[in-house]
Amino acid sequence: MSDSHRVLAVVFSDSGHTIASVAELVPMLERAGEEVRTEAVHAKGLWRRANPLAVVQRAFGALLERSGRIEAPVEDPAGYDLVILACPVWAGGIPAPVRGYLDRVRDRLPRLAFLITCGGEPGDMVDKLTAAAGQVPVAVVLIRNADERDGKDVDMLHAFAGEIEAALG
Ligand SMILES: Cc1cc2nc3c(=O)[nH]c(=O)nc-3n(C[C@H](O)[C@H](O)[C@H](O)COP(=O)(O)O)c2cc1C
Fold first, then answer.
1. Tens digit of each residue's pLDDT (9 = 90 or more) over 86-136
2. What is the distance in A from the centroid of ligand 1 to the CA of 6?
3. Binding pocket residue ranges, ligand 1, CB within 6 Å
4. What is the domain extent for residue 92?
5. Would you call 90 helix, strand, or coil by DSSP?
6. Average pLDDT in the 68-74 region?
7. In a domain, 56, yes or no
8. How far, in Å, from the CA of 94 to the mean position of ligand 1?
């Protein structure tokens, strides 16, 4: 087992898929000896999903590359060896609250890994997230909702955890 590292999983999840993936991933990293904290990005001003216009609001926010208002993050990412940025694809792009998070912490980020969830059409989300974060991630996993349904996500998350472990050394 390698020396323990500090890992922060920063999660934005609207309908629960991304947080479920992170909940699977965290024990994998902990079994490898890492110390993992999870921080949720809390959006301000997002309409409830029951609102018929909520999908439009979310999609346009992402399409227009908006930086959404969020509650102040609790954890300082600079105190960690690696941050896992976990979020869904919205309209082929980055949810506004995730851009809001990145705008606040970009210059305090250590190495990054991306856990991205999507319905099946991720577009160039990895490139967009790389540009918004200002650095190339050490590992990426892209989980489609069908992967979760078919139980394929567990193997994908194991491989992702392995890549993170390799990068942490
Ligand atoms: C407003 C909105 C836009 C979306 N746009 C896309 C898209 O462009 N491509 C895609 O594959 N999935 C898209 N999805 C599906 C989500 O990425 C997918 O369901 C994801 O697993 C949701 O994660 P969450 O449950 O953590 O919020 C969209 C979902 C919403 C609500």
1. 999 999 999 999 999 999 999 999 999 999 999 999 999 999 999 999 999
2. 29
3. 13-18, 55, 58-59, 88-92, 117-122, 145
4. 6-168
5. strand
6. 97
7. yes
8. 10
